[in-house]
Amino acid sequence: DPETRANYAMYLAFRDALLSAGTLEAYYLAFVQEGRMGVPPVFIEKVVTAIVVHLWGRDADPFEQRASQLFYRRQRVALSQGRVLCADAATVERLGETPGFDLMRILANGDGHAIGSHLPVLCASNVGEFSSAADPHSFVFDLTHEIANDLGHGLTFTMTRAHSGQAALARIIEKWIAHFLGVSTTVHPLQRIDDPAWAWHIGLDVESTALLNDLWHGETLEPERLKRLIGLFRLEFANPDEMRAEVAGKPVYLGLAMSEEQTLQLKPQNLLVNLPLAALM
Predict the structure, then answer these.
(1) What is the distance of C-alpha 174 from the center of its chain?
(2) Do 184 and 278 contact (CB within 8 A), yes or no?
(3) What helix, strand, coil percent values describe the chain, rounded to 5?
(4) For residue 95, what is the DSSP state?
(5) pTM
(6) How far apart are CA 99 and CA 132, in angstroms?
(7) I want to staple 248 with a disulfide (CB 3.0 to 4.6 A). Which of 12, 21, 23, 243 is the partner?
(8) CA–CA separation, 87 vs 237, rounded Å?
């Protein structure tokens, strides 16, 4: 059967490339740096999955575990009242939820458990359920970093969430970079970029790459398009000497954005090929 032979040939080529590289990390780094084509996306997804699970360590933080799923699983995003919620796209489709899933129904119960849905929001009160869940992709991830409370009379109180999804994602980004490149960085969520000397940025997905490029060039974005930018981060190198000379000591801004269809597909390889490193690690 020609199709079966082609499938086996593709699989064996993938297997041989892995064996030749020696480790999953070496294979993946070569894959993204050389821009290899013809490898089924599911193969790369499994490689990234195995690498990310290794980054958790023995004392795995449930919020970091869920944040790491963004590295290899497409998400559906819902926005409401300043909150940014992500649900695993394949799980939403499998459960027969509507494409945007019913945000208000999920948030109906304050303790984070969904009502009439199989998609609970991961929170402090159900981390035990997440750790023992048969399907680790069934929990909604709250990417909200800060919550603004209107106190009236024009006063607003902003509070950083104790279990900020963006903070958990920032920690995974730090571990990802250190694991592959041996570079120590700190990553912090931002509300906006106020930097007249903005020198370097990286989009963590296709949409945010285009958005940040346009903002850097001083273009005015339509409000609806700007709303797709659901996360900003400031990345700093522990050792500025590891950066390219022209940007040494300056922050690197990271962006996270959903598509027009309110989906999020992270491209973690961007962090490995677009950092302003002084030399190829």
Answers:
(1) 12
(2) no
(3) 40, 20, 35
(4) T
(5) 0.87
(6) 27
(7) 243
(8) 31
Q: pLDDT for 138-178, tens place per residue?
A: 899 999 876 544 444 454 445 455 678 999 999 999 999 99
Whole-angstrom distance, CA of residue 191 vs CA of residue 255: 11
**Distance between CA atoms of residues 89 and 100, nearest Å:** 9
- Rounded to 10 deg, the angle between the 24-34 and 165-181 helix axes is 90
Of 194, 183, 203, nearest to 243 by C-alpha is 183
The confidence band for 111, taking pLDDT boundaries of 50, 70 and 90, is very low
Burial of 25 (0-12, 13-18, 19+ CB in 10 A): middle
The answer to whether 234 and 253 have CB atoms below 8 angstroms apart is yes
Phi first, then psi, for residue 149 (nearest 5°) are: -110, 125
Neighbours of 154 (CB within 10 A): 6
Q: What is the DSSP letter of 250?
A: -
Contact call for residues 67 and 141 (beta carbons, < 8 A): yes
Distance, first Cα to last Cα, the chain: 44
| Listed residue (167, 161, 186, 189) closest to 175, CA to CA | 186
On whether the CB atoms of residues 105 and 114 are closer than 8 A, the answer is: yes
**Cβ-contact 44, 31 below 8 angstroms:** yes
Handedness of CA 56, 62, 64, 66 (dihedral sign): positive
**What span, in angstroms and rounded, lies between the C-alpha atoms of 137 and 73?**
9
Q: What is the 3-state secondary structure (H, E, C) of 36-56?
A: CCCCCHHHHHHHHHHHHHHHH
Residue 117 has a pLDDT of 55
Of 211, 193, 187, 206, nearest to 269 by C-alpha is 206
